[in-house]
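Build the 3D complex.
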Amino acid sequence: DAKTTQPNSMESNEEEPVHLPCNHSTISGTDYIHWYRQLPSQGPEYVIHGLTSNVNNRMASLAIAEDRKSSTLILHRATLRDAAVYYCILRGWNTNAGKSTFGDGTTLTVKP
Amino acid sequence: DVKVTQSSRYLVKRTGEKVFLECVQDMDHENMFWYRQDPGLGLRLIYFSYDVKMKEKGDIPEGYSVSREKKERFSLILESASTNQTSMYLCASSSPDRPGRGYTFGSGTRLTVV
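Done.
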């Protein structure tokens, strides 16, 4: 499985934008890039995904590099409720449909 | 609202006991997964199943087995629980023909083996 690399931790001030990076240099042409977040004492929840083009939804935006070897999750205005561990994973088309590897993720701290 | 439900939120078992962790999903997903999560180690895949009665080992299958008799239910079995299996266990499901769609996770079972 292709792996991703993320910084261990990041800090942000409330109401400011946050850019969470992810490197995936071994991504294949059919791998989707997914982002999840995990709040304390909960299972991970889906945030956003993309293949080649940048994506926006009500939670966040996803910016994908032209060579697809990296991506950035953008939280436009961080709130205290956005403090969580953020995971970037790859999901591809294969027979067993993507058992994906979750790394340690990035722990986001939001300061008031 | 679609759901993955894990039968217990917290569980305390004794060393040597046989432990069953149950997971049910209502999305008709073919794929189901069991992960464990420990501080500093991220989510590690124990087993996954891509169809009824089918299973494959993940990265850390030792000491565990699984059962998938029905599409909606995936059970994780600790044949003889040990203290090093104290952890958070997370179940997830997904659809194989929609990799653009992601995983749906349960809320987790925090297992303590004493």
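The beta strands of chain A are 9-13, 18-23, 32-38, 45-50, 55-56, 61-64, 70-75, 84-91, 106-111.
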